[in-house]
Amino acid sequence: MPIARRELLLRASALTGAAVALLGAAAPAEAATPTDANGLNPLSILDQTAALQAAIERAAAKGEVLRLHMGLAPRQARERAIALLDEVGIPDPAYKVNAFPSQMSGGQQQRVMIAMAIACNPEVLIADEPTTALDVTIQAQILELLLSLQRARGMGVILVTHNMDVVAQSARSVLVMYAGQIVEERSSATLFQAPQHPYTAALLAARPAQAASGRLATIPGAPPGLLHRSAGCLFGPRCPYATDRSRTIRPDLRDWKGGKVRCHYPLGDPDRHARIAADRRVGTEVAP
Ligand code: SF4
């Protein structure tokens, strides 16, 4: 597991004091399971095909997780694995428990991954791009499955995604991140109604449904690398509202309109145009 993912898992577990599971889509599975400061063993499940294949190659499949983390005997582990497959909507689970990934559709693979992620009854499930590479219909089914499991189990779900439509369908509160920083935090309803950070607004404008005359909006430029970060706002080089103040002073994340925003000129500020104009006139002499 990449270090960032391992740390995400351990920190989430340490912060919440809860059993945490990670359902992700970007790296091969790792045999070793990290232990956090609370002595908990957060479970990590990554790229569905690779992880399933690796599990099956170890001839343990779903039962291994249950035996390792819950101390179940092989027979109990198999029965529990079948029950979990049934819970996530896999047809004929007693047969599918022995199936190889190549015998399953992408949607079924993702359901098996979800079954593995909830096998040890986590209190928080971190779902990292759980619908990547799935078509729109299956994507909706997987989201509905996650939300129904959340309700039925009283489990927290942290959804990590680049897809704002997925956010709109599923999230109650949203953290928008840019270059590793939170730039906006608010309820999903208010975020989609009135985004306050220019990056959030640009993300929402880039959704396919917003494409005017068949052209998809884009955000020019690229995020900064870890080693090439300006002293000012990290979104500054791509922001149409940037001033010298933006370029020289990095904005803090601050309370704003019932949420938080990291911008000197939030979009809902009635004085923003005057302040931007004033700061552009002042130019490089602007003081912190
Ligand atoms: S601080 Fe300036 S550059 Fe950064 S997002 Fe706000 S307006 Fe844009």
Strand order of the largest sheet: 2-1-3-4
* Oligomer type: single chain
Residue stretches low in confidence (pLDDT < 50, at least 5 long) are 25-45, 56-60, 284-288
| Small molecules bound in the structure, each named once | iron/sulfur cluster
List the helices and strands in order. Answer: HEEHHHHHEHEHEEHHHEEH
Give the beta-strand count: 8
Strand content: 5-15%
Average pLDDT for all residues:
81
User: How many DSSP helices?
Assistant: 12
Terminal residue distance: 41 Å
Shape: elongated
How large is the radius of gyration? 22 Å
Give the fraction of residues assigned to helices. 40-55%
Which structural class is indicated by helix and strand composition? alpha/beta
The major pleated sheet works out as: 4 strands, parallel
Detailed description of the structure:
- The structure is a single chain.
- With 288 residues, this protein is an alpha/beta fold.
- 42% of the residues lie in helices and 12% in strands.
- The chain contains twelve helices and eight strands.
- The chain has helices spanning 3-16, 48-57, 61-70, 74-87, 93-96, 106-118, 136-153, 164-170, 188-193, 198-205, 244-248, 272-282, and strands at 20-23, 43-45, 124-128, 156-160, 173-178, 181-187, 254-256, 259-261.
- The chain has a four-stranded parallel beta sheet, with helices on both faces. Strands 5-6-8-7 form a four-stranded antiparallel beta sheet.
- It is elongated, with a radius of gyration of 22 Å.
- The protein starts with a helix and ends in a 6-residue tail after the last helix.
- The model is unreliable at 25-45, 56-60 and 284-288 (pLDDT under 50).
- Bound molecules: iron/sulfur cluster (SF4).
- Iron/sulfur cluster (SF4) binds at residues 198, 233, 235-236, 239, 241-242, 246, 251, 263-265.
- Residues 198, 233, 235-236, 239, 241-242, 246, 251, 263-265 line the site of iron/sulfur cluster (SF4).
